[in-house]
Amino acid sequence: MSKLKVIPEKSLTNNSRIVGLLAQLEKINAEPSESDTARYVTSKILHLAQSQEKTRREMTAKGSTGMEILLSTLENTKDLQTTLNILSILVELVSAGGGRRVSFLVTKGGSQILLQLLMNASKESPPHEDLMVQIHSILAKIGPKDKKFGVKARINGALNITLNLVKQNLQNHRLVLPCLQLLRVYSANSVNSVSLGKNGVVELMFKIIGPFSKKNSSLIKVALDTLAALLKSKTNARRAVDRGYVQVLLTIYVDWHRHDNRHRNMLIRKGILQSLKSVTNIKLGRKAFIDANGMKILYNTSQECLAVRTLDPLVNTSSLIMRKCFPKNRLPLPTIKSSFHFQLPVIPVTGPVAQLYSLPPEVDDVVDESDDNDDIDVEAENETENEDDLDQNFKNDDIETDINKLKPQQEPGRTIEDLKMYEHLFPELVDDFQDYDLISKEPKPFVFEGKVRGPIVVPTAGEETSGNSGNLRKVVMKENISSKEDEGEKKSTFMDLAKEDTKDNDRTLQQQPAPGFTAEVKKDCSLPLTVLTCAKACPHMATCGNVLFEGRTVQLGKLCCTGVETEDDEDTESNSSVEQASVEVPDGPTLHDPDLYIEIVKNTKSVPEYSEVAYPDYFGHVPPPFKEPILERPYGVQRTKIAQDIERLIHQSDIIDRVVYDLDNPNYTIPEEGDILKFNSKFESGNLRKVIQIRKNEYDLILNSDINSNHYHQWFYFEVSGMRPGVAYRFNIINCEKSNSQFNYGMQPLMYSVQEALNARPWWIRMGTDICYYKNHFSRSSVAAGGQKGKSYYTITFTVSFPHKDDVCYFAYHYPYTYSTLQMHLQKLESAHNPQQIYFRKDVLCETLSGNSCPLVTITAMPESNYYEHICHFRNRPYVFLSARVHPGETNASWVMKGTLEYLMSNNPTAQSLRESYIFKIVPMLNPDGVINGNHRCSLSGEDLNRQWQSPNPDLHPTIYHAKGLLQYLAAVKRLPLVYCDYHGHSRKKNVFMYGCSIKETVWHTNDNATSCDVVEDTGYRGLQIGTRELEEMGAKFCVGLLRLKRLTSPLEYNLPSSLLDFENDLIESSCKVTSPTTYVLDEDEPRFLEEVDYSAESNDELDIELAENVGDYEPSAQEEVLSDSELSRTYLP
């Protein structure tokens, strides 16, 4: 029998050597030869693969046939040594190449061939040890990369082969180690895990793991990893609980904790914790953990580990287990429904509000009989083949995701006869301006001939139907006549609220004080009036408040006069004190007037019938003259707070548990002790339901549900008094519902100090340290969680040290902006504008459920004269429809709207150009009732108004019904708005972004791309918390963007000065270059940065470092040392 000629190695380069060897091996497969030749060739290939990375790279390169040749030989050969050589080659290839080479082997069918080889090898008695070690080692490496590996292994019968090998060779650690590694891979499949559990694999693992030992640490580590994977199956977890293994695991963990003084076996200790974490996923496991005193054991051991940063993975995992096992508590409330009740005129037939009204009064809606739903579930026997299906889709509460709802509905709209009710809200379409004092008079006035002319339509406004023109009736707007005492001042100083300073990017819209500068106080400035008024009123102020006006009683909140601190000893009414208390005021008139605010509040209707006024709303807010950077999060703050919560269970005698504020119990007694804080939320937009003192300086706070609802807890606004300076008070808001919050990423709550306001600093400031947001141990009932059981509430916790003794301070989720504030601002804008230049009209769109008016604002430029062409030009300006505050808790939307309104009413040349280009129809507050009553998301109907646009009910959703009616009316007269923008806030996203009605519609519908210009980011905003100055700036810059849109869409080109367009280009800024007109926001809308740290409210505040699974050496790697010991710098995006 002739032998194949082997080519001498030295005559070939490395490249041709491996190619030649593989060609010889392929020829051997085609022409069966003696086994020693195959043995020789494979040994040479193995030598090259072990010594040269170039060889390994070439064999796994795209287009290479090397892998197929090796697998074909492995499948066909009967020679043991050839098989071992090829397995060694495969181990070399996948060990050094990472995941890509493993995946390459899987795609070539390696999993099936190796599993078949395992089956064949198991038939020998006894099985060859080296062969079994090699097969199990390589299968353990490639199994995780094969999504169907679990199914393949089960079909081939590999599970029992590996399990029996372990049972029969417990003392042979060389063979057991790779078998355990493969068992861990098998167990990733739930069906396999159950099957292995039935065959005694859990009991087998406990024969391998045990108390502290310096021997066999590698084997124990892999056994623990396998056990943790097995116990993820609820069937296996129950089996472990029944056999008392929870107590065993705790005992073993304590033993390793005590003896591992040099922390060389941290991975073993973590493996024990991972097994406990798996077994406590079921209720029986959590009960067994509590009964075994596991809370105290893990608490004590984790506290001892805090001093060593490399042990952080142990602390974090212990914390996760304790949080999970912490007994679920019910919220200390009689009902989760709102403390306030409002009877609806119509009860919805279906939906959550209907369920709320149909709930029997005897039902306990705070908590369910069981806090778990996991024991009800039966182990799924049908495996999920695609692991991607297990991922939960991102749910965004702020946009509609139902495709059917997003499709245009061809439903019959309201008739033109029905829509006539909105004619009076569009007088600008028919007004002849004969009664107006316009800037100039033309020789040919527009003459009214007894017949109302419809709008003269130009291409930008669409085509006009002749049938509708006669339906428009003439409405003459009355002139805005101001009082005599203000008339002279307003003539001399019209509004100029939008001063730009593009050089230093510190643009002031309104009331921006300059540091180190004091100006004289003008008559209508809020601050000096406040200081003088309070100084006079304080000596006569009763303890229950100060009655300011006759008629309906309206009171200011409590103010302890004896505790008011001034910054010098002079009389507050003296000139020096007034000068000291003054702030810089812009040239234009301020929009805040305390006396006017009180008058407006007297007409504001609230469900609780509030009679108090919060000081921040009375004093007003001026943006502070300093920037407020995002708060850097201290290392380990969240787990420290969680540990303090766990101490409540371990050291129950230390808990005071005293109610100090309760809306549900009007007869509760306010503690008289001087060291207890006093709380209040009985004022417009206030929200705080109950306060419980936990420790001396720690309080649990519970928020009120939206009226006619049993959830939506996020907005808070409350008053605190009776504090001592220099004391760190911890506040825990314990019934939040969202899964994460910007409080985990550097945002701080807002605080307003009355003492600071009296000392000339009337502003909301970011305040608080040790801030985090995490899942707590208070259980949400299925009634409050949409039918889901076992869900928990979340806690916002922050610590505050107050600067003044006996101050009155207010805390809020975001800058408050009340309904009365809006009405005051609109009244001030109306009284201060120039009627010859600006067409401003404030109408009432409708009344809300509680009888408050919903304002509708119209802003445009007055026609140059009542000359025919000027009137035609006026009437045919395109409409821009703006709205805001459909969600009451999104107060930032109102501040952006304030910036829009002030800018449109200013004397800025660009603002004038905007007014001359568009007619602005604005509904600045779509949900007045929700805002007034401190709701977060709903109106008094208990429904999210932003989900009612498709079929609004005029009795339950009047503001939406009539706002939609305005749009339908404009459509009926062929005057659809060019733009409709609704202003919102977002609790978990940063920066500024846009949503459309659907993904396809989130595009500027223009012939030219309005967003594709190259723009440069102003980095001055990076790292800052957004304040009212920035919010108002957003509102102004949005308007300027509309001017750009007009230039790109309108065939009517107005001759704008080039300086205006250059200025507009400078004003519009963005954080990136936009390459597509599509601006919709994806789930991951924020770019990833190396400095970004992800804090999860579901787990602990530090990312649990995934330690390397090196079975040979369990010393912490250098990378782990660096990650553990270094103080990771954290940079947050604005």
UniProtKB/TrEMBL annotation:
Localization: Cytoplasm, Cytosol; Mitochondrion
Reactions it catalyzes: (L-glutamyl)(n+1)-gamma-L-glutamyl-L-glutamyl-[protein] + H2O = (L-glutamyl)(n)-gamma-L-glutamyl-L-glutamyl-[protein] + L-glutamate; C-terminal L-alpha-aminoacyl-L-glutamyl-L-glutamyl-[tubulin] + H2O = C-terminal L-alpha-aminoacyl-L-glutamyl-[tubulin] + L-glutamate
UniProt similarity note: Belongs to the peptidase M14 family.
Pfam family, one: Peptidase_M14
Protein name: Cytosolic carboxypeptidase 1
Subunit (UniProt): Interacts with MYLK.
Keywords linked to the UniProt accession: Carboxypeptidase, Hydrolase, Metal-binding, Metalloprotease, Mitochondrion, Protease, Zinc
GO terms of molecular function: metallocarboxypeptidase activity; zinc ion binding
Chain segments carrying region Disordered: 566-589, 1114-1134
PANTHER family for this protein: CYTOSOLIC CARBOXYPEPTIDASE, CYTOSOLIC CARBOXYPEPTIDASE 1
